[in-house]
Hints:
The longest helix of chain A is centred in the last third of the chain and has 32 residues, at 342-373. Chain A is globular, with a radius of gyration of 23 Å. Helix content of chain A is 70%, strand content 5%. Chain A starts with 6 loop residues before the first helix and ends in a 7-residue tail after the last strand. Chain A is mainly alpha-helical and 520 residues long. In chain B, helix 1 (3-27) runs antiparallel to helix 3 (34-61), helix 6 (152-170) packs antiparallel against helix 7 and helix 18 (408-421) crosses helix 23. The longest helix of chain B is centred in the C-terminal third of the chain and has 50 residues, at 574-623. The N and C termini of chain B lie far apart (89 Å). At the A-B interface, helix 7, helix 14, helix 16, helix 18 and helix 19 of A face strand 1, helix 6, helix 7 and helix 26 of B.
Amino acid sequence: xxTSVSWLSIVLxxxxxxxxxxxxxxxxxRVLIQGWTVAITxxxxxxxxxxxxxxxxxxxGGGPLNMRYAENHEWIPAIGASYxxxxxxxxxxxxxxxxGVFLLGAIVVSRRETERLRLFxxxxxxxxxxxxxxxxxxxxxxxxxxxxxxxxxxxxxLSNFGEKNRGKATLKFVIYTVAGSLLMLVAIIYLKVHSPTxxxxxxxMLQNPGPAEGAVPxxxxxxxxxxQFAFIAFAAAFAIxxxxxxxxxxxxxxxxxxxxxxxxxxxxxxxKLGAFGFIRYAITLFPHEAHDYQGVMLxxxxxxxxxxxxxxxxxxxxxxxxxxxxxSHLGFVALGIFSLNSAGINxxxxxxxxxxxxxxxxxxxxxxxxxxxxxxxxHELAGLEKRMPYLYFFFLVITLAGLGMPGMNSFVGEFTIMxxxxxxxxxxxxxxxxxxxxxxxxMLRLHQGLMHEPLQPRAEQVRDIGVRDGWVLLPLVALMxxxxxxxxxxxxxxxxxxEHYVTLLSPIPVPVQIIQGDVK
Amino acid sequence: MNNEHLIGLLCSLVLLFxxxxxxxxxxxxxxxxxxxxxxxxxxxxxxxxxxxxxLLANVMTAPEGEKSLTVSLWQWxxxxxxxxxxxxxxxxxxxxxxxxxxxxxxxxxxxxxxxHIYSVGYMEHDEDVARFFAYMNFFIFSMVLxxxxxxxxxLIVGWALVALSSYxxxxxxxxxxxxxxxxxxxxxxQVIGDxxxxxxxxxxxxxxxxxxxxxxxxxxxxFGHGSAYVTGICVLLAIGAFAKxxxxxxxxxxxxxxxxxxxxxALIHAATMVTAGxxxxxxxxxxxxxxxxxQAIVACVGMGTAVMAGIIALSQVDIKRVIAYxxxxxIGLMISAVGxxxxxxxxxxxxxxxxxxxLLFMAAGNVIHSLHDEQDIRLMGGLHPRMRWTALWFICGxxxxxxxxxxxxxxxxxxxxxxxxxxxxxxxxLFFVGLIVNVLTGxxxxxxxxxxxxxxxxxxxxxxxxxxPKVMLIPVGILGCGAVIAGLIESPVPSFIGNHLWQGISTFxxxxxxxxxxxxxxxxxxxxAAGTICSVAGIGAAYSWWEKNRGRASRIAGRLPRLMxxxxxxxxxxxxLYDAILVRPVTAFxxxxxxxxxxRGMDGWVxxxxxxxxxxxxxxxxxxxxxxxxxATYMLAFAxxxxxxxxxxxxx
Lengths: 520, 652
């Protein structure tokens, strides 16, 4: 694919343009609205697919991140902000996941009897632009703008289309994440001011890191160094978004009240952006601090794995079970990232994509069950296999993928992550193994609880899924099996990226600029 | 086409036939009708058996020193550089064809084929026969993958997929709550074993930089003989094997697994899957050879399980559970044998056991079938005249199980005892425990036979019992003949050809597993004699207690200390124990977390922070009282603070 066309900008702004054009369609023309949304997301997916396929042949940028398809223009030269987008192996897979999940979201929403369909579809497209911007941005101010912009359509989606308790859940989510990202903004400004090039450009910053400063004196003692403060600020923003325990309480409430169609891309992509941020920003900009706080982050990751799993074990609302399982799985991703070796980071990248596929499938299945039976309480559902054999099959495969069955996609990710963790400290892999056993327990409890045992009276009249649901579920299930049986092509690309990030991480001696006396 | 390509093709075929059969039955089967399902379900395994036979011929005719061949299909994953290894670790989908894997393959597809035929009759009245055959074929596929794979990661995939098939088949009748619980229990126990294997793989790969099994075994000495590291690896591998083979302390799932249809019990929970642990230890023999500690642990756990399961089997009243505990006991013997380094003998017993145990399960299945799902042996009795063929084959199986000469089990069991008698140091105790197991086996095997087939019918159902249809009898008959003669393969009889006491299997497997610590002829004959006497004594005891003089058994049990029969009947309370120390605490902890920690602790600090800002706002608002004297106080206070601050800066 030639680089003379600004493909990444097209990917970035096509959904936004689609959302604007959507407003010209009369609100009553439901079929047209649905068709247009699907067409836009499909076109984006096709372009992204071609970009990912052509990734290895595209000219490498040569910067520290080796960006392909990079575009760099001035944006606000007065403050050193630029419009700089690019794609590396990490961004490629995230973007592919992003495009795929929004396409599925667009297809699924068109089936549901949503009021104000045009608003929903418009917000969906705007969200896609925002998340794509987060993934593609190489300029930190641009990254920050998209990071915050993501909240706006999500806020309106939740407050307009959410289920009960949406008000409280949305407020909690927005304030929580804004608190984290404001801290990050302060850190971004600090980095920019101290960088020799005085720009927000990530690659420039990585090439010429600012001088490391000594610890801030404070009434005779020493506080953290500014770099450490900045790392903590970034880490807080990403830990909230991921989320890591104990910053997770917004997630179950939010997933519970989130409309099912929005949940697809919410759970599929938005929560992965925290992990993306950790890899792209937190560990590359702060290699020393990443090593300093490795122990803390790994502890939080392991706590997330076990805590999420234990919570999922006793929860009765099926959506909340999946929400807690998601916390546990994202703990695995964090564990891989902060193993700070190539196996761990590679596994984390693979698992981010895998988890996006699995959680989208899970929420799709649970959405179908809730829609057809009218309940989400585990105790009121049983024996659905009798009435829904086809759904049972899809649900079985998704469940197995969710519990990390060898031969399925998530095993590839979890195996690699655990290998990375094992190399850092063997006990981490053992504890993560405990998480795998618990995952098996709660996933089977969920699956068997819904599907097996005698049929409940309220499910007597339930119909099995139709052809349309099957066509939505089939590609997801095919990916789960396909990426498990033959992960080599994907993992080869992510591995190169992971090894690249590890080289950025290797501790480079940085001269310490001493201010106000010797602090060492 | 050279030999390597041919072997690669055959490996793919032996995997593909069952896999395609499974896919066809699962997707098309429900609409294609019962006849097609039966045909595809059995023919796919039959075809796999033929391919396995070709592979066997290929290995038999291969020249010395070239018996083992590894073929590579595709690269599965590249793990990148490992810290200590300094090279990229690639995981390939590799398959090994050697005497060990071919022997496993023959048993899996051969016995599997007969059980599939039997299933056609057994599942005749079940609506879901397509789903049944889809799962069964998938099991054969997974099991073949397990034994063929030459890479530890791929072996783990097969290892987990057989657990999955087992889960699906135990829970086949998903509307029975007990089956659902049993399937989940089996699966979770298996996952514990999977995790142990994964950790063992990590320990290996971080030292050797490879997961390819031929390379691991060739470099087994790298870890250092007797080092803690290699013992750690071996113990983890053994935990995986214990979970799969239902050995103490991970054994409680196997009896519950009898909730599945009887052909499933015969195929998965007797003949093939549960013996995968034996295969694993035999396969990693060179590694275990580096760690005498791990070998001793394996040998003792195996023998301990054998005794424990033998004692439990004495008092169980469910026909399938008695056989399940006997399986656990026999696998304990095999595990003990491979723990002592007697790999070929362990594999020999695996083979004979697969034959006679599948036979016993299928014969029991005939009984259950004709009594309309009655499984309580106290309600049977007097079936012999009504089911003559089944009774005949059942007694053949019982003799083989008990180890009466010259049935199949006799040869393999007494050979294992010979190795135990030759064990070093205190491990010689295993020989004497093994003799006790022989007695126990004789008793429980014939208790079952006499209670079920002899005596008077205990219920009206028995009077209406009838012989099973031919499709179920013929596979049982074939296995019955096997139970009589299969032991000859390793007997002194063919020693006219070679001049050696032990033949057949051990010569065939020798290139892979070596000889082990072989007993001298004198020790072997001594063990043979002692073992035979014990077995026959057990059979005789059962005859006198349950046949000749009914009711004597309960009188003897009454004279024992009260605790012994109670412990036996309640399976040593392991289910209750695990429930009390694992399941209940974890669920209670999880509930407590959901009720207390999550709302008060985790969400508490979030809401607390919000409330704090709320209070702060209210507090500041209240200070704005409108009174001049308040404002003057604030001004003064802040002025003082400001001046002090400036002075502080200036002083520096």
